[in-house]
Amino acid sequence: MLSRASLGIASCRRLVSLSFSRNVAVSAVCCQKAQAAGIDPIQKLFIDKIHEYSNKSKAAGGKLVDASPATEKALTDEMEKIARMYGAKGADFTKFPTFTFADPTLEQVGVNVDIKPLTESAAEEDEEDDDRPGWLP
């Protein structure tokens, strides 16, 4: 019975080893093909579209890319409407505003405290009143 179990384990071991080596061989071929191709086809398509849009935007010269005359007219109408509503004149209102903050000058709050030196008579009074509570004057 023990020999039968050892034969079963040995055959399982050979089967697992064979399956592992085949999987490694197939995976290695797939990896080599993927490296030869460069990148994922979806990533390649995305990058190509980004480059295409970049070239179109440079050719448009700062205007809308692939815009029809109706789209450009709608944009100018909206810009005019905003200019009328908020009183913005020119194309500068399309830029983000710049803020300048200046630190305010602070006036010093003065507390005039005159510290007088302790005289001998005041020191004697303090010594005599040591048995008084501290909250009494």
Features:
about 140 residues, 4 helices, about 60% helix
Distance between the termini: 106 Å
The H/E string reads HHHH
Q: What's the helix count?
A: 4
Unreliable spans are none
* Percent helix range: 55-70%
Structural class: mainly alpha
Mean pLDDT figure: 77
Shape: flat
**Radius of gyration (Å):** 44 Å
Q: Please give the largest β-sheet.
A: none
Q: What is the number of beta strands?
A: 0
Strand content: under 5%
Task: Describe the protein's topology.
Elements: H1 2-37, H2 41-60, H3 69-86, H4 120-128
Overview of the molecule:
With 137 residues, the protein is mainly alpha-helical. Helices cover 61% and strands 0% of the residues. It is built from four helices and no strands. The relative contact order is 0.03.
Task: Describe the structure concisely.
The chain is mainly alpha-helical. It has four helices and no strands.
